[in-house]
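Retro notes (design track)

What went well: tokenization of the new backbones is finally stable.
What didn't: we kept losing track of which sequence belonged to which structure.
Fix going forward: every design gets posted as structure first, then sequence, in one message. First example under the new rule, 175 residues:
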């Protein structure tokens, strides 16, 4: 019964977000990914680097941007916050535009709790994100999930600030 209530609540929140996003003004972003544009950008970057500028790397790729955006969870929870739903909606839109790409969702926890508990919680977090993406039209066959529990913290501290950063899902492109 609790699963049904969570599913209904998730569906309701997603519906509201989709309605609101359809009403919002979209700002167009033009990205030229043609080989000639990429070559020109590389030449410009190389020229700046040779001229002694601070430019050391090229702009991040679409894949890098997709992977860099994480979602976060409250302590001992695996329900999706409104911010996470917005991020997942953007990820679903990107995945729909790139049907050749598959992803792995990695669930993570903070250090509190047993290893076994955190592995299970991380898995529930990853599966919740997957369920959301599936409900937004992404095929389940394109998504795998894994839990790392508390074994891969991004913040090494032992305080609330660190724990908040470690309670997350990460998204990796696996093509």
């Amino acid at each position: 019964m609790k699963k049904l209530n969570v599913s209904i609540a998730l569906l309701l929140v997603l519906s509201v977000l989709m309605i609101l996003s359809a009403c919002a003004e979209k700002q167009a972003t033009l990205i030229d990914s043609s080989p000639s544009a990429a070559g020109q950008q590389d030449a410009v970057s190389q020229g700046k680097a040779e001229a002694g500028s601070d430019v050391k790397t090229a702009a991040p790729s679409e894949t890098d941007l997709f992977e860099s955006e994480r979602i976060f969870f409250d302590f001992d929870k695996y329900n999706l916050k409104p911010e996470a739903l917005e991020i997942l909606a953007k990820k679903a839109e990107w995945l729909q535009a790139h049907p050749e790409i598959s992803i792995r969702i990695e669930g993570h926890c903070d250090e509190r709790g047993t290893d076994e508990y955190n592995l299970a919680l991380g898995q529930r977090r990853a599966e919740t994100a997957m369920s959301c993406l599936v409900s937004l039209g992404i095929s389940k066959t394109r998504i795998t999930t894994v839990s790392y529990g508390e074994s891969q913290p991004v913040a090494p501290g032992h305080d609330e600030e660190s724990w908040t950063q470690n309670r997350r899902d990460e998204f990796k492109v696996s093509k």
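Added context from the reviewer: The first helix runs from residue 2 to 23.
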